[in-house]
Structures are given as structure tokens and as C-alpha cells.
Amino acid sequence: MGNIEKPKDARGALNRLIRYLGDYKVQLLIIALLTVVSSLMALAGPYLMGVAIDNMILAGDIPGLVRISLLLAGVYLFSALVSMASGWVMAIISQRSLKKLRKELFEHIQTLSLSFFDKRLAGDLMSRLTNDVDSIGMAISSNVTTLMSSSISLVGILVMMFSLNVWLASASLLVFPIMVYITAFIGGKTRAGFMALMTKMGSLNGVMQETITGQRVVIAFEQQESVNRKFTATNDEVKAISIKTNTYSMMMMPLMGILTNANIAIVAGLGAWMTLQGMATVGLIATFIMYSRRFADPLRQFGNIYNSIQSALAGAERIFEVIDTEPELKDASNAIGVNDFDGYVEFENVDFEYVPGVPVLKNISLKAEPGQTIALVGPTGAGKTTIVNLLTRFYDINDGSIKIDETDIRKIKMDDLRRQLGIVLQDVFLFSGTVMDNIRYGKLDATDEECVHAAELANADGFIRRLPKGYDTELSERAGNISQGQRQLISIARALVADPAILVLDEATSSVDTRTEIQIQEAFRRLMSGRTSFVIAHRLSTIRRADMVLVINNGEIIERGTHEELIEKKGFYYRVYMSQFKGTNGSDVEPIRLIPAEQTAPQFSQRGMPGMGGMSGIGGMGGMRSMGSTDNPGDRGNTAELSGHGSMRGGPGMPDMMGRMMEIVKAFREKGATSPEGALSLEELGLPPRFRMMMRSPMGQSGIFSEVDGKYYLSEERLNDTRAQFLNE
């Protein structure tokens, strides 16, 4: 956002703030009356003090002194009670006004497009909702009554002094111009400072929010020192601006104190001379000294009020800046409501740019029939996610059209459009609350039975019921008390409960193990039946089942067809497939790798163990002699020979390899690591670190051994399938 040196329209911001108080005119009138009464009662105090000195103390009238003392005490007590009452009513009004302002700001933020949040720090928006609103609250709750009271006191003191003695009153005004000048000068200096301070505080909140949210990544990459330096740099800037601004602000009190004492000295000196000349009395001088001391109080309060108002106006402008931001995406005036979609989707010559002049999608055209599954494949940054962002109308296209059921989505109400879209993203976000609440987020009126059924379809029901309170288990912020894979399963259940007409799956199974993925894929097959689905595919099983595969590169669809058709073309997709899944480069063509590299279930070679074809990285198994027999040198020789080869197409070493793997299997069984719940670390299993290398090989991807949060378990089902296949071959 950058530093803003001065408010753009302080008067406009003030007028808008006053409008928030407009609903409480009667209460404000009551406050004004109470403030007038309180101020006038307080002004009577010095006058009664002078009368007591001249008429009672000097005359020795003790009974009269007692009466006037009681009267004086009553006046001050009544003034204090009235002042407290007006402050209490003002606090109620200010908090109600702030509630309205805070609600308006938050609700408006919910209407803004994603492009707005792309350009804003979350911490800065939080600062506007909290710090800036609080600064306005402080200005309204205390300064409105103080401003009225100070104004009445200032006028009342002037009236009382000139009515008592013109010469002494004129002498009391000698320092008045200096007081006014200091108030204006310091106020001008603090105005820009408070605006810059609030802006920089927003940046500091942004750094804190981002760092705390990403603390796991900070620790994982040991970047504590880096974030400390970043925080310190921003914190130092806040400190420097705060010191400068508050120094000017705090100068007001001492300077006003000096001028007040100077004014008292002038009044006391002139009053003493006039008393000696018989032109004034002692009581009158005492009254003027008290009025002179109080005369500075309104001015000093004006200075403080001015500073507080500058802070409030700075915050108000930042708030109104957000409120005045128009959503980039709005429903058309003639937008239609849609209760259900058939699922026919068409992109026609779509162009899109996030940043003007930097094209992201170019001339994208595609059609999806109801019930079809469209797989989007391509390198990172090619535009796959952008296509689904445009389908959900998170952004509007620059050119072309996107239609659902022959209707341009810009003519459909956005609420109805998104209600018919089920989205599962790779970056899962769950809210604080119960597991049931997060599943129901897909459809707020869903029953508990519907949510449980959705969890069963997503294969999340099992682990949810094992949680301490099952579906009523409270999730921490960003669901940090469950694993990433479990968060993914809940997000899938959340999409399932919405029962959408069109599905959007963005790497929806990227965070789960092989066994869970198989279960999820089965659930997705049931879910996608009869629904149009767009899948950003990083799993071969999804690609092969898709009705249409769109290969996207540099924002363009460069190939389209089924998996088999694209393989036959031997183009971009073929080279990706061969380099990633077959371990070759497709007739010596330079391999092209998707980033991140696509992972898949193992592909069986014609001979040998499933998942072993192209196992160029199996050298790690050769080094695992401690896991096999060491009595037979031939065993080691076979293993070593196998480890040096790029493939394993059977041969005398194959049974030996199977035997070594069975010893690893035995270790898993002995430790009871045969399910995700019983997963153990390498140390607990007694396996060497080389086991991790094996897990990255095609053998590791066969699903026999699976990893859950750094721990491993054995899949007996996959083992039996693999052993049966091996024996058959």
C-alpha cells in the first residue's frame, strides 16, 4: 500500500463518520443537555470560591462559610454525576455506531473479488478492521462529550471573566494566541504521522499474520532468523514513526502547562497591583486565578482532541477506502437465477490476463458434454488452474465467452453459479469449529445424516470416528490438529455434501497415500457419475479414465483427445507420458517433465514384479544387504548385479529380490505396522535410511509400503496382488 503522508479528504471522512451517529439524534441531544448542565455547574465553582473568600473568610462568617462550602461540594458532586451519565450514554452510542461500521466493512469485504485480495496483505485488512476501528471508537466515545464540554467551558470562562473584571480578563487572554498557534502547529505535525503510523502498523500486522500462519514452513526451512530480520526491519520503521508522531503529540501538555503558569503569573501580578490600588478584592483575584488555570484546560483538551481526531480520520479514510472499493465482478442488471445445471460447458475463444499486457490464456476453446470428465494436463504455470478459476467466475475473462447450458456465465447470478459448482482444491482450508461444521460448510442446511454420508463417500468416516469426539471434534486454526491427508478428505466430503452439478478437482488427491487414493478415486467415480467434471490431473488413473484430455502449455491448448489418442499422436503428451511413466524419452525425443512431476500407480512390465519396470534407481536396494541373507555370496552378487541395471526383467536375481523384500515385510508385520493407524518410523521399524530411497522408486510407488506423515505401514492387499502377479509371470 505504501506510506500515505496525509489524508486525502479529512473533511469528507469526518462528515461520513458523523452520519454514523445520525441514528442517535435524541440521545445526542440528551448528552448535549447533560454536558451543558455539567459544564455550567463546574463554572460556578471558582465564583463561589471568590465569594467565600471575600464575604465569609475575611468577614469571619463561619456559619456562612459552612453553607457555601456545602453548596460548593454539592455543585461539584452534581457536575461529576451528570458528566458520568453523559459519558455512559455516549459510550453506548459510540459502540453501536462502531458495530454498524465494523459490520458494513466486513460485509463489504465479502463482496469484493479475488483480485482485490491478490493485491492486499491479510494483516493490513485485519488492521483496518481492528486498529483503525478502535481509533475511531476512542475518538467518538470520549472526545465528543469532551469537545462539547470544553467548548462550553471556554465560552463560559470568557463570559464570567469579562463580567467580573475587563482588565483582568484582557490580561488572561495575552497568551491565548500563542496557545492557538501551538495547537495548530502540533496538530499539523501529528496528522501525517498518525496516517503513516497506521499504514505501517498494517504492514507489521501483515508480517506477523503471514509468519504465524506459515510457522510450520518457517521451522521446516530454518528461516527463523530471516523472518526475525524482516519483522525487526518493519518494527523499527513503526518505532521510528511512532516516536516522531508521539513526540509531537506529547509536546502539547508541557507547552500548555508552561503557558498556563505564565498566564497565572500575569493575572496574579496584575491582580496584586489592582488590589493594592483598591481596584480588586482578594476573592476576585482568587476567582481569576482559578479561571485562568481552567482556561488552559479546554485549549489543552482541544489539542488532545485534535490529535485523536487526526488518528481517527486517518483510520476512517483507510476504512472508507475499502468500503468505496467496487467489486470487479458484479451480477448483471438482467442476471438470471438458475436452480440446476445440466452440465454442458463451453469455452469459446477465451483470452485472459491477470496483469494487463501479460496474457495467461490465449484463444482457449473447449466443450464438455453433461456427465463428461475433462482432464487438464500441463506444466506448472501453463494455465490449468486459471481455466477452473474462470469457470467459477473468480475472475472475468478479457475476451471470448464461457457458457453453461448455452448461457453466458456473466448473465447468471454468481450465487446460483457457484452453488452448482463443487470445488476441491490442493491447498485445503478448514475453519475452526467441529468436523461436522466444516463438512456442512458445503451446504449449510445439510442434515447430520447427509454430512456423514458424504464423509463415507470420501472415505473420511473411519478416521473421523476415531477422533476424540468423532464428528464433534473441534479443529484448531487451519485444522492443525489433524494431518494434511485428513484435511484433504474432509474437504472432499465438504464438496460431496454440496451435491453439485459440475465438479472442479484441483489435484484433489495429491496429499493422500496410495491406499487412501484408491478409495478416494472409487468415491470420485461414484460422485462424477452423471456430473460434468474438470480435473487438474496429476494421477495417471484419472487421465486414463477421462473422456477428454486437454494438454495445456503456455496458456494454449496444444493437444486434445483421449489418453489412447494422444499416445498414438506421439506429441507433447506422449513425451510427457514416456518420460514420467515409462522411464524413456520416447524414441530419444528430449523428455518434457511436468512440474511437479506427475505420480501414478505402477505400470506392470511384461515380465517381473509389478512396478519394477524401469527401476534405474534400485541401487538403494542393493545396499540393503543387512536386510537379507549374508551367508550366501551368490545372493549378494545377484543383488549387486541387479542394482546396477536400469530395469528388472526377471532373471536369476528376481526371486532373491523378492526374498529380501519379504524380510522387510516380516519386519513390518512383527512391529504391527500393517495399517495407517499402526504406521511407524524407520527407527521404530529398525530399517536403514536407504528405505526412503526405495520408497521414491517405482517399487515404492507400488503401494506395498505407504507413508503417512513420515511413518510407514504395510498394505497386505497390495502385497498379495503383487505376489500373485509375480508368481503368475
Give your account of this protein's structure.
Helix 15 packs across helix 17. The strands form four sheets. The chain has a six-stranded mixed beta sheet with strand order 6-9-10-3-11-12, sandwiched between helices. The protein is α/β, with parallel strands linked by helices and 729 residues long. The chain contains 27 helices and 14 strands.
In brief:
The chain is α/β, with parallel strands linked by helices.
Question: Total strand count, please?
Answer: 14
- Describe the biggest sheet? 6 strands, mixed
Gyration radius (Cα, Å) is 39 Å
Counting helices, strands and paired strands, the structural category is alpha/beta
Summary tags:
4-stranded antiparallel sheet, elongated, disordered N terminus
SSE layout and pairing:
Blueprint: H1 10-20, H2 25-57, H3 62-111, H4 114-118, H5 122-164, H6 166-172, H7 176-213, H8 215-220, H9 224-250, H10 252-276, H11 282-323, E1 345-355, E2 358-368, E3 373-377, H12 384-391, E4 399-404, E5 407-408, H13 414-419, E6 421-424, E7 433-434, H14 435-440, H15 448-457, H16 461-465, E8 474-475, H17 484-498, E9 502-506, H18 514-528, E10 532-536, H19 540-545, E11 548-553, E12 556-561, H20 563-569, H21 572-582, H22 619-622, H23 633-643, H24 653-671, H25 682-685, H26 690-695, E13 705-708, E14 711-714, H27 716-728
Parallel strand pairs: 3-10, 3-11, 6-9, 9-10
Antiparallel strand pairs: 1-2, 1-4, 4-5, 7-8, 11-12, 13-14
Helix pairs in contact: 1-11, 2-3, 2-5, 2-11, 3-5, 3-11, 5-6, 5-7, 5-11, 6-10, 7-9, 7-10, 7-11, 10-11, 15-17, 23-24
